[in-house]
Specification:
This protein has about 375 residues and is of the alpha/beta class. It has twelve helices and eleven strands. Strands 1, 4, 7, 8, 9, 10 and 11 form a seven-stranded mixed sheet that branches. Strand 2 and strand 3 form a beta hairpin. The radius of gyration is 21 Å and the shape is globular. The two termini are about 30 Å apart.
Length: about 375
């Protein structure tokens, strides 16, 4: 799991972007099933029967039954969905697809790191990027600065005493220029994190988070946002989506964890969701047909969710050509169905989101080099 933040002293003027990566290739056809398409039911006789118990979004699409906690966001116009979404490369390797997607193509550094580095100077300091977890996500490579933490306790001076910190502060107080400024930002961040750790606030508005690591990570993000530390962007992982066998139970658990975590986060933030955007993405989707092990194999197109302030929600976005066999991407098979094609490139979703968060044509070109953006109209 990974999270990134910016502390600038101007937290109340910031928008916050939260990117949720579903590692393992989440089945978009299970999360947002096209219940009104007869081909869906023919290709997945067992899995589609389960899907019919979900939430009807419109005449064609539904929402997984365990994602019912996001229905209000859809009805209230704060949740938009892009189907048939993914990368242009025809790879079904988790590692290669994740690498390409997080790097924004064949480019040095991560797309989110490049965006933060190329945007106008914003006075970002010690918490410009924070990876909540054990490792730095690839999307943040190249960011101006990065700290890695699983909990607030991890953001410390390695167990140093208050006297030790005071000595360091006096030492760096004599520094001028970038080093001195960075040191002061770091000490300020330590004070803010210490306050969150020692005097945690309960979630607001009756929000209840689950006990899993994903929900705990979202709860920490909400604390940072509400503390006005200037959290500008965040990335958090929810792994485990490689559903080759007995998909129903596996996806049920993860879909519930995903939706309930986001719903609690949304409730906790309340009015602050007006300046917050949540994006959900995955490296690729699953095959249209279910396999003999009651699961699905590596496919192509999947689903992206966009939730938050200014979103043109309560509707599907992007191209959708249906699941008739002739509309699918084939892999040399003579019979049966193929894969859901990638009709909507993931960069055109992320580009729209970054526009919402202050992106310009210049820094978006630096964020996604060698790709001509055609952003989707996801925001008012």
């Amino acid at each position: 799991m990974a999270t990134q933040a910016v502390i600038s002293g101007q937290g109340d003027q910031r928008r916050t972007l939260v990117v949720i990566f579903l590692r393992g290739a989440a089945d978009g056809l299970a999360l947002v099933p096209p219940l009104g398409d007869d081909h869906f039911h023919r290709a997945r006789p067992r899995l589609a029967a389960v899907a019919t118990k979900g939430v009807r979004l419109d005449d064609l699409f539904g929402l997984h039954a365990r994602m019912r906690s996001l229905e209000n966001a859809w009805r209230e116009g704060e949740l938009a969905i892009v189907h048939a979404c993914g990368i242009e490369d025809d790879t079904r390797s988790h590692f290669e697809a994740q690498d390409l997607m997080e790097h924004g193509g064949v480019a040095a550094g991560g797309w989110l790191g490049r965006y933060l580095r190329s945007r106008p100077p914003a006075g970002a300091g010690a918490l410009a990027c924070v990876a909540v977890g054990k490792a730095l996500p690839e999307c943040l490579i190249g960011a101006p600065s990065v700290s890695v933490m699983q909990t607030f306790e991890d953001f410390s001076l390695g167990g140093g005493t208050p006297a030790f910190r005071a000595q360091l502060e006096r030492l760096y107080a004599m520094e001028r220029g970038d080093l001195g400024e960075a040191a002061r930002d770091t000490f300020d961040a330590l004070v803010r994190i210490e306050a969150l750790r020692t005097s945690p606030r309960p979630p607001d508005n009756g929000a209840i988070y689950g006990r899993d690591e994903f929900s705990a990570g979202l709860a920490r993000l909400a604390q940072l946002i509400k503390a006005d530390v200037g959290l500008e962007a965040a990335s958090i992982d929810l792994p485990g989506w490689d559903s080759h066998f007995a998909q129903q139970g596996q996806v049920d658990t993860l879909a519930g964890r995903l939706a309930d975590g986001i719903a609690a986060f949304r409730r906790d933030l309340g009015l602050r969701m007006a300046t917050t955007t949540v994006v959900v993405m995955t490296e690729f989707g699953r095959t249209v047909e279910e396999n003999s092990a009651f699961g699905t194999d590596h496919g192509r197109g999947s689903t992206m969710l966009v939730l938050g302030g200014g979103v043109r929600g309560g509707r599907m976005h992007g191209e959708w050509h249906g699941l008739a066999p002739e509309k699918l991407e084939r892999r040399g098979v003579l019979e049966g169905y193929g894969d859901l094609p990638v009709l909507n490139n993931y960069r055109n979703v992320l580009g729209a989101v970054l526009n919402r968060h202050g992106g310009t044509s210049a820094n978006l070109a630096a964020t996604f080099p060698e790709f001509s953006l055609n952003t989707l109209p996801l925001f008012d």
